Amino acid sequence: MSESDKNMKGTTTVGFACKDGIIIATEKRATMGSLVANKGADKLFQLDDKIGATIAGTVSHAQSLMDVLKAEISLYKLKNDKEMSIDALAVLTSNILKSNPFMVQTIIGGVDKDGAKLYSLDPSGSYIPDDCISTGSGSPYAYGVLEDRYSKDLTVEEGRKVAIKALTSAMERDVFSGNGIRLATITEEGMKIYTEEEIEAIKADI
User: Fold this and answer.
1) Do residues 27 and 180 touch, judged by C-beta distance below 8 A?
2) Beta strand segments in 28-84, E
3) Which of 165, 174, 164, 173 is nearest to 198 (CA)?
4) How many CA atoms lie within 13 A of 156 on its CB side?
5) CB 135 within 8 A of CB 105
6) Diameter of the chain by CA atoms?
7) What DSSP letter does each residue of 113-176 carry, written as one string?
8) Quick one: DSSP state of residue 87?
9) DSSP-derived secondary structure letter, 179
10) How far apart are CA 70 and CA 48, in angstroms?
């Protein structure tokens, strides 16, 4: 099996809306059954200046879907001379999933002229707007933290700690999740992807 065909059904991703933006985060482990196939899998993507996504599913499908979405966003901006809204991107992604066999569950979030928005999409193409989402095998453990600590009144600065705590909890209990955290915030200023050193500094303050 090639590197790109490794499966990431055993995954934990989280995304939630704050009063000043969006938080998205994932862990880094990719598995093939009970084998840890990769300890540095990238499940967090920047699609545009103020749009990001997380993925859970078959890696090759996820990479292909993210490439298609980046291209479609760029084409839309070129044709219309304006940014694509998060709602429009969710509908576009839904249509792509309905017409292609992408075995991927994704969280898409960002900030547009109407504010911060978040969508969950599954392989069948259904798309659901929500304020707080977790996907993958570790999601029950992540939701345990999110139900207790998440509020829409959080700032993104406060939300970073909640996301890290949720993923840490999942990695402690879900054998298919682990090997570090990927974290991003999206605000009016743009999307910031945090370094390992920055994440460790935030963890030290939790």
Assistant:
1) yes
2) 30-32, 35-38, 44-48, 51-57
3) 164
4) 23
5) yes
6) 48
7) TTEEEEEEE-TT--EEE-SEEEESTTHHHHHHHHHHH--TT--HHHHHHHHHHHHHHHHHH-TT
8) H
9) S
10) 7
Identity of the amino acid at 147: E
CA distance 56 to 99: 19
- 94 close to 125: Cβ distance less than 8 angstroms: yes
Q: pLDDT tens string for the chain (206 positions)?
A: 333 344 445 799 999 999 999 999 999 988 877 788 788 889 999 999 999 999 998 888 999 999 999 999 999 999 999 999 999 999 999 999 999 889 999 999 999 999 999 999 999 999 999 999 999 999 999 999 999 999 999 999 999 999 999 999 999 999 889 999 999 999 999 999 999 999 999 999 98
Going from the C-alpha of 79 to that of each of 31, 73, 74, 84, 150, the distances in angstroms are: 40, 10, 9, 11, 39
Active site residues: 11
Structure tokens at 119: 């969508």
Q: Which two tokens stand for residue 162?
A: 């909640």
Two tokens, residue 107: 């969280």
Please, are residues 16 and 22 in contact by the beta-carbon 8 Å criterion? yes
The H-or-E segment that residue 67 falls in is: helix 59-80
